[in-house]
Amino acid sequence: MKTNHHFPFLALIACFVVAAIIVARLAIAIAPSRKSRNAPASTQKPLPLVESLSEPQRPVEIVSYRVGPAQVHRTVSEVANELRPGDIVEVTGDICDAFELTRSGTRAKPIVIQGAFKVLNGRFVRPKITIQPGRGHGIVCRGDWNVLEGLAITGATSDNWYEGTAIRQECDNLVIRNCWIGGNRQGVYSSRGSGSTVVEFCEFDSNGGVSPEGSQMHSLYLGPERPGSVATVRHCFFHDAAAATFVKSRSPRNVIAYNWFEDQSVAALYLVDSSQPRDEKSAVLYPMHSDIVGNVFLSSTAPGQPKWKTLHLGAESQDAAGTEGEFNIAHNLFLVSSDNADPSAPVLVNGSVDRVRLYNNVFMGLGAAYFKPYERGGLWEAPRTPDFVRLRGSGEPILEASNNWVSTRALQVPDFMRSTIAGSNPLFEDGFGFNYRPRKDSPLCAAGLWPLPKGQIIDLAPEYEPQRGIPLDLKPRPRRKLTPPSIGPFEVAK
Q1: Largest alpha-carbon pair distance within the chain?
Q2: Which of 68, 190, 394, 491 ranks highest by number of CB atoms within 10 Å?
Q3: Domain that holds residue 282
Q4: Chain centroid to CA 377: how far?
Q5: Residue 6 lies in a domain
Q6: Under a CB-based contact definition with an 8 Å cutoff, are residues 95 and 69 in contact?
Q7: CATH of the domain at 311
Q8: What are phi and psi of 422, to 5 degrees?
Q9: Alpha carbons 359 and 331: distance in angstroms, whole number
Q10: b/e per residue, 202-220, with b = 16+ CB within 10 A?
Q11: CA distance 155 to 310
């Protein structure tokens, strides 16, 4: 019988191959990879980016850091410089921290700082980030394509100018979602060098202050000066302003939709022009356009509260020309309070503005309040862009208004407000209980203008309804599609 002398050699090779495979698998199992250094990634999926910023939803199986009191990494600061596109940092518990995000994500793979929030007894419980004492800002976003979500952020109270801010934006494409931002001298500050911002499903509670220099510090300040930047604020709840304004924006484009504003201090919205001189460099920011759709504006009724304008639009001061663009204001509810010696105005327009359009809004005085639904402020001789001078020649806006419901307590309803419905009671389902949905016998029902013209950025026909608070399922409330629609932000119930 012939012996195969190659068999022992082949068997030895096979043993070596099997051993190598076993060693490799063991090495993979125990290797200190980025994922194994940290606790396992959360099973809670990050919410997808909003339509204006998103591509198909990023995959869930992404390397993740977990930080918190019981984790290897106690703070976000410890891992911030290691982040790469697609990374998720999950905050698992309350921490005291202040950190900068200097790395950029991408459209498809943003860098996400996410709180492991939960719903308990009908309310959100979010991990709290308390700003470290002595730090001017809490979270500074310098890298593009960052997302902050599911966090409670408080304690930014520095007295230094431009400080005392919970979130400072120095980047493009920042998303702030499902956050509680409260008790800060300034909630969010977006610098001149920043770009587009989306703020959605966030609660702003008791923010605002005045710097030692006397400058107002706001719940949300958006000041980008990148051409084409869009500031989107939607499905948010602003309440109990400590000072200043709920939303101040100098963005070239603004979308303010489906929010609830309650107990303002100075103004609910302050949408004005750039702070830079009107020259060739800044001219690319104009015209500035804003679509304001489907919001509730509830002025304070507390004694001693300042009674200012609800919407301050156009030019900020006598040194500014104005936004030179459109303000499209549709399907909002203005509940106005003021002292009788100085009637308030829900809508104040200053400076050079191309067009103001008011459709299907409710203007109602609270208590004994008298008010003017629209007020034309100053038109100042500040420099305007050559394009605006050629287009308009004058700073006086084209005014269009139709199918608004106005309380009989209104003073000086202007002639341009056509097809106005005047009344003493719009017949809400439960006005004292903040249920401003029209009853079936309400004069608001089926009284809206239809069809509506298009807005500059979004449709003026509302898709959703505002909510007093953040919905626990983080989903917007769809509005019933009826034509013609009801006036105001809510549609009549079935």
Answers
A1: 121
A2: 190
A3: 64-478
A4: 27
A5: no
A6: yes
A7: 2.160.20
A8: -100, 145
A9: 7
A10: bbbbbbbbebeeeebbbbb
A11: 27
| Whole-angstrom distance, CA of residue 91 vs CA of residue 66 | 6
Closest CA relative to residue 63, chosen from 25, 109, 28: 109
Query: What residue ranges of the chain have pLDDT lower than 50?
Result: 1-61, 303-304, 340
Give the chain's domain count.
1
3-state SS class at 226: coil
Give CA–CA dist 109/302, Å, rounded: 46
Residue 129 has φ and ψ, to the nearest 5°, of: -105, 110
Asked if residues 382 and 353 have their Cβ atoms less than 8 Å apart, the reply is no
C-alpha torsion angle, residues 94, 248, 449, 463 (rounded to 10):
-20
Q: Is residue 31 part of a domain?
A: no
Distance between CA 282 and CA 221 in Å, rounded?
19
Q: Is residue 485 part of a domain?
A: no
The verdict on residue 28 lying in a domain is no
pLDDT of residue 339: 55
Q: How many beta carbons lie within 10 A of that of residue 453, not counting itself?
A: 13
- pLDDT (0 to 100) of residue 25: 40
Phi and psi of 298, rounded to 5°? -110, 105
**pLDDT at residue 46 in the model:** 42
Contact 156, 165 (CB under 8 A): yes
CA distances from 305 to 264, 311, 334, 356, 371 (A): 9, 17, 17, 28, 16
Taking a C-beta distance cutoff of 8 angstroms, is the pair 237, 468 a contact?
yes
- As a whole number of angstroms, the distance between CA 79 and CA 114 comes to 14
Dump the DSSP string for 36-79.
TTSPPPPSSPPPPPPTTT--SPPPS---EEEESTTSSB-SGGGT
Of 255, 382, 280, the residue nearest 324 (C-alpha): 382
φ/ψ bin of 122: left (φ > 0), alpha (ψ from -120 to 50), beta (otherwise): left
Q: Report the chain's C-alpha Rg in angstroms.
A: 27
Whose tokens are 């100098």? That residue is 250
> Rounded distance, CA 121 to CA 303, Å?
33
- 226: exposed, middle or buried (Cβ count in 10 Å: 0-12, 13-18, 19+): middle
Single-letter code of the amino acid located at 194: S
pLDDT for residue 32: 34
Which residue matches tokens 């009191």? Answer: 69
Taking alpha carbons only, the member of 131, 115, 463, 108 closest to residue 293 is: 463
Nearest to 119 by CA among 475, 477, 465, 474: 474
- Which DSSP string corresponds to 242-253? SSSEEEEE--SE
